[in-house]
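agent> Task received from the user: take the single chain below, predict its 3D structure, and emit structure tokens. No templates, no multimer pairing.
agent> Plan: (1) validate residues, (2) run structure prediction, (3) serialize to tokens, (4) report one or two observations.
agent> Step 1 OK, no nonstandard residues flagged.
tool_call: predict_structure(input=
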Amino acid sequence: MSDRDPQPVERQLPTEEARDLLALVRDIAQREIAPKAAEEEDAGRFPREIFTLLSESGLLGLPYSVDYGGGEQPYEVYLQVLEELAIARLTVGLGVSVHTLASYALASYGTKQQKVEHLPAMLGGGLLGAYCLSEPSSGSDAASLRTKAVRDGDSWVIDGTKAWITHGGIADFYTVMARTGEDGPRGITAFLVPGDAPGVSGAAPEKKMGMKGSPTAQVHFDGVRVPDDRRVGEEGQGFSIALSALDSGRLGIAACAVGLAQAALDEAVRYATQRRQFGRPIADFQGLRFMLADMATQIEAGRALYLAAARLRDAGRPFAKQAAMAKLHCTDTAMKVTTDAVQILGGYGYTADFPVERYMREAKVLQIVEGTNQIQRMVIARHLVGPEGR
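)
tool_result: status=success, residues=390
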């Protein structure tokens, strides 16, 4: 390695334990995840064994209480773990973020008995979760969801279809938002549904332009009977639980976006310092040097933004506006940086022989998931000037 090759990200971490944790994550990422990433993404293969390894290593429950098998790490640390995983392979980083999102409702709103019964397996027992809010006809307008849960004695019967579900069809548990009452946000309740419950089925995975190794599918609930002790929170509280989960989940997407952009920058630097034209490395040409400088600056700004939001969350202060800002900026940055990386590699960047074309395809979905970037702008504006139509 020459002294001009890309170096690991310099991180500001609060404890020695956190530094050891990031070293472990980097080792797993470089040894187990990155070497197979391109081949498995091309084949559309989901690396379930990697998630088993992450669970065994205590990396699937980092933000949650040690009392229930979590790592009790601040979001400031957890998000940097996600970034490192996403540098190696976005399917893995995003998958851990989604699993954390799926575990949020029970960890934050469940009863002590529910936590004792379910959380240890969810956080460290090898299970994989999915989060079910969106539907075929309710994406950004999530409060209009139609999946219904009807009480039948001490149980609920769930019928409906969820759409765009990461880990759909392969998850061991689903956190499901279903309508139990009136139209609108106040009639929605959250449920923890086992993936093998009778009546739960996954459709064929969507054929996507990127992240082919991460299954995204509709999930059908056909007369699924769930006992009332798997209802999370109060009846009618589901939508507020969902929004609270998404505030934290958006920080996960922001961290993954920064990781993807960092991977693209690293590849662009590596190529620019090795590729020679007109008798010298193309990194010597000012036009490319300025592109690389802009890419690095945008990435550092995104990292600072998501960490600032994380520190607000860790301090127990409001952070919804900053989470929306981080998701917006970081995912737009990932799209710009990956596109520029393709440009720096020229014709080679457009081929599957180099990873930057995959990074560019993967970046696009980050501007869409967990609230499109247009929705993020609406959230930010509401914090600035109040709701629309006052």
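agent> Step 4: summary for the user.
The CA atoms of residues 75 and 310 lie 5 Å apart.
agent> Done.
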